[in-house]
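Sample intake sheet
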Amino acid sequence: MRKYNITGMSCAACSARVEKAVSSLEGITSCSVSLLTNSMRVEGSAPDSAIIKAVTDAGYGASSADSVVKAGIVRNDELSETGELSTLKRRLSASIVFLLILVYISMGHSMLGLPLPAFMAENHIIIGLSQLLLSAIVMVINQKFFINGTRGLFHRSPNMDTLVAMGSMASFLYSTWSLFAMADAQVNGDITKAMSYTHEFYFESAAMIVTLITVGKLLETRSKGKTTDALKSLMQLSPKTATVIRAGVETEIAADDVVKGDIFVVRPGQSIPVDGIVTDGESAVNEAAVTGESIPVDKKPGSSVTAATVNTSGYLKCEATKVGEDTTLSQIIKLVSDAAATKAPIAKTADKVSGIFVPAVIIIAAVTFIIWMLVGKSTGYALARAISVLVISCPCALGLATPVAIMVGNGTGARNGILFKNAISLEQTGKVSIVALDKTGTITAGEPVVTDIIPAGERTEEELLTLALSLETHSEHPLAKAIIRCCTTKGMVPEDVTGFMALSGNGLVAKRNGVKISGGNLEFIGSSADIPEDIRSASEKLSAEGKTPLFFSENGKTAGLIAVADVIRKESPEAVKQLKNMGIKVIMLTGDNEVTARAIGEQAGVDEVIAGVLPDEKEAVVRRLKKQGVTAMVGDGINDAPALTSADMGIAVGAGTDVAIDAADVVLMKNSLADVPAAVRLSRATLRNIRENLFWAFFYNIIGIPLAAGAFIKLFGWELHPMFGAAAMSLSSFCVVTNALRLNMFKPYDPSRDKKRSVHIKAEENPDSSTEKTIKIKGMMCEHCEARVKKALEELKAVESAEVSHKKGTAVVKLCGDISSDELKQAVEAAGYKVVSI
């Protein structure tokens, strides 16, 4: 994707014109123009020169932009409104000075009787000339409206500046004509007629229109600047220097100059310059800049550290692993910036309207003028109505309604460690009706821990743990690591063993002090030792709770059991509850066995548990769920990537693999399930804000244009002066942007205002009526097994054919009639194999 800076855009009509011009080029596959950041993103094979020429021919300026992120720093010129703000302030200050003098002369003297200099007081020609001169000065100060507006007309792409320029210039030219007519009448001695022209002066309107629009532009620019505050704050977090060790000497260099493999040091209070791994030292690091979590995280050798996080206590020595654009902070900045430059589907309506808005307004203004002239009103009156139509119409509000809310919503998410990759994901997340959660590492911690220690006979817990530690120290199994961690925290030390052997699928054996010790599952230990009934029953109870009991014996006698389990995260039940309270169906997907899965699912409170699914089967399940409603898949591992990609919304927890994060639409940096309902909540709030903005923008124009045209004069006597029209136009965009800024105060973790929406979930098709079924079978070892299962299935009348694979452990059955899952199961089990699921 290539990026360009666009200059000269003033409203949604401009961005629509640029987008249309570039999209029409051969080789362009997509084009997105952001009025908020004055940027354009293009995908396609068309050369830069052709793209820039298309923008120039449309009446705007374009230049190729560097990458949004370079060495972790966002381009200042892209997001900073300082230069434009200063220019607008100078323009406004100068305009107000001359406008006040003009208003004093035109309205203060004639309406309030305020005094004027003697040479001017009784000479209406001089008064008129003074007004002409002062209004011309104000218009020259604000010449940008006239230059851009005229350029837009010449390029057949009228914009907001065109409306302002036409309204102001029409007032000025008509007033100038009236001044000359007054002078002619006075020369001819017709004083009464000359005096009548004083009521036809609209010089103050011409000046007031451009001044009030400048006020609106100033307010809009300041508000737009605030929408990028989150991105600017991220930009400022990037450390500028780093202390690296080169040739054995600590040297301070620019953070941009750190290369992968450098050893850098971080002292207490300093920011970590790049992503890395701790090689020496221990400390607590505040990661709020990246995850939004304020509680410091302990770091020790082997721990990963992230750029822009702050070392709060100890001295750390780290090896750089990701530098420049590859750091986590740089990727976050890029995600937020990219999302701001993309368009949400809801913006399409506003874009279509914006493309024809300005020409339509010009036509309405012309029709308004003609109608009032036909009903017998004066030229000045008819012109005032037409000018009001021109200056009250605001395509800006339409163009800003969506992007400002997207930018602020993304910024709010980034501050809380919730990253939406684009505007589409920010909009769609709030529409999900089904959430499928991976179990390991998402609902659970993903790291097994010791949960129960039950010694047999008169042994103590310490004796059982010492035996287990001595045996498991030599094992690489994840369950062994759980026991080792448990014993280490208790300060226990393993005893020496000899003759250690790991018997695959069974357990471990060794000798301690010449006595045989063993560890493993029930069958393995039970084959060489008597297992007491209380230990056996405890084992069954623990298994029902989803825990894995490990038995240990010494010299042919049971020493006890230690239960290990991947425990549920403490925030998981509350997160699931919040999702259900929002009207979302929650499903847990896992490759674990049915018993363990159901135990965890019950603790978490999910609506449905789907167990024993392989990675490719997860993807198939997600595809099936999508037929019932908008589905989000939440996962963290490589095995979740296919399902994340297949889902309507893929949500990856930040501690997961790069593959999972790349495949997802939303990334949760804190690795907490509580962020899932928070992301949905933020998405819904942003979508609600966009709808409010679009309603205001459409409502304003639908009511304002007829009001300005005089449609309500006969009914209610409502008449709009051009100056009030200009004031309304200047405030409309400001109101839209200010409304979007309210999202900065939104609390994504507050469930108090959650509303249970109508769940749009279609009834699942009856699995017994499908024409194809996949049966998961346990026990097939070879081609002969395949043949036996195939024969057993194809003997059933309703089975047309069966494709059986002992490697996959499945049988894909094509049906030609109605048959229940129970009948299929009975046929397979009659052949001597076990059906796991259908």
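Comment: The chain has a mean pLDDT of 82. Residues 475 and 502 are 8 Å apart (CA to CA).
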